[in-house]
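Please decode residue identities from the backbone states below.
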């Protein structure tokens, strides 16, 4: 085995992260800054890995997913106003808000992308073919290079972030429920504007409390939803942890194997991929999978998605996306877990399900690719996840070193598995 200087690689990884942070900064999905980030990272890939990246442009509606949440909050406030005038009208708008959120910001579909302006973006990747010239299997190392909008509530107080959002959801749900209740109570007595049913309200005093006071009390919660994130790119996340760490780690692995092709497992093709627009609903990885699902690239393929390597107490195998209802590959997850265990990096469980949103393993999983996501991030709300605090000054090369070793060892385990088939 060729020696791999993991310490030097971790220092190089930190230099790379600081370079992108300084020269580009935040890289919101579909933005000019994301395109500048892509140009710089491609230059770094070609210089460091020694292989010219392949670019695959695509169109994206960046604010149609997670970025739409503040607009959904505004829709919730409109629903509240309509509810107080004409209950069923408010309920219908609340239904539309929930449907849109569920499909676009929850399950990351692209059903309503046509309502939004499309922008240009790109995925790019390097390909190292095996020295033998024969490809038996492919390993894709992936990470996303875009960064997130600033999550205002999380940065201000991560402990109250989730309760505030739950408060808003309860408020909008109350508009939905009581709007329909009032539509059908007492022989349709409330199925008219508020100013026409004052007498009916007076005869049903408990409804005044239950159906009108409760939603009003929840107005602040709906307002919190409008403040979920900011579209102001000047305060967006620099994305050093999430996810220049993944981009930088994969670059170091690809750089090593390019310089030492004899160390790459036999007949293994190695792809180092940088995905765009993960923060807007996994748009980049979806585009990548759609493009390559029928061209043979993903045949007998292993994907290791690296996303956020920063917190030394939380080296984890991400076993699946709970919200996306995707369970990732058990055997590949076991390989990564064993690598972490052998390196002594497991401080907590070593295995978790992604508790919110989704990650770039999901599109690969749905395409039948063996995939796992690797992270080292505290899985609770923090003031540095998806906020302007996600800077390089809180990162440590010692954590990077462990992460690089874990991915390298997992690649070797994949090679051993494939060799055992012969």
């Amino acid at each position: 085995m060729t020696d791999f200087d993991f310490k030097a690689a971790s220092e190089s990884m930190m230099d790379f992260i600081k370079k992108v942070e300084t020269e580009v900064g935040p890289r919101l999905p579909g933005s000019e800054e994301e395109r500048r980030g892509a140009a710089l990272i491609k230059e770094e890939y070609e210089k460091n890995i020694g292989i010219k990246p392949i670019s695959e442009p695509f169109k994206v509606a960046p604010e149609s997913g997670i970025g739409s949440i503040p607009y959904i909050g505004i829709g919730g406030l409109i629903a509240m106003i309509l509810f107080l005038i004409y209950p069923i009208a408010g309920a219908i708008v609340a239904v539309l808000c929930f449907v849109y959120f569920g499909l676009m910001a929850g399950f990351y579909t692209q059903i309503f992308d046509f309502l939004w302006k499309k922008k240009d973006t790109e995925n790019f990747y390097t390909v190292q073919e095996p020295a033998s010239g024969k490809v038996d299997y492919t390993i894709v190392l992936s990470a996303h290079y875009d960064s997130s909008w600033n999550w205002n509530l999380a940065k201000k107080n991560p402990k109250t972030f989730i309760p505030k959002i739950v408060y808003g959801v309860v408020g909008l749900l109350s508009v939905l429920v009581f709007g329909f209740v009032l539509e059908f109570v007492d022989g349709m007595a409330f199925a008219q504007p508020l100013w026409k049913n004052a007498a009916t309200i007076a005869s049903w005093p408990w409804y005044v409390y239950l159906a009108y006071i409760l939603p009003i009390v929840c107005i602040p919660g709906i307002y919190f939803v409008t403040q979920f994130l900011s579209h102001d790119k000047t305060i967006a996340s620099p994305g050093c942890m999430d996810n220049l760490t993944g981009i930088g780690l994969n670059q170091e692995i690809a750089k090593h194997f390019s310089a030492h092709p004899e160390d790459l497992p036999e007949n293994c093709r190695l792809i180092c991929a940088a995905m765009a627009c993960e923060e807007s609903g996994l748009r980049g990885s979806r585009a990548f999978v759609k493009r390559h699902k029928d061209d043979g690239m993903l045949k007998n393929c292993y994907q290791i998605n690296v996303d956020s390597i920063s917190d030394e107490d939380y080296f984890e195998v991400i076993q699946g996306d709970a919200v996306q209802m995707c369970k990732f590959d058990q055997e590949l997850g076991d390989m990564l877990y064993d690598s972490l265990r052998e390196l002594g990096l497991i401080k907590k469980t070593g295995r978790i399900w992604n508790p919110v949103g989704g990650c770039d393993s999901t599109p690969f999983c749905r395409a039948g690719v063996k995939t796992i996501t690797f992270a080292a991030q505290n899985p609770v709300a923090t003031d540095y996840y998806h906020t302007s605090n996600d800077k390089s000054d809180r990162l440590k090369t010692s954590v990077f070193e462990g992460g690089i070793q874990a991915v390298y060892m997992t690649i070797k385990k994949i090679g051993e598995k494939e060799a055992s088939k012969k």
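Observation: Strands lie at 54-60, 119-128, 137-144, 268-275, 301-309, 315-321, 326-327, 351-354, 370-376.
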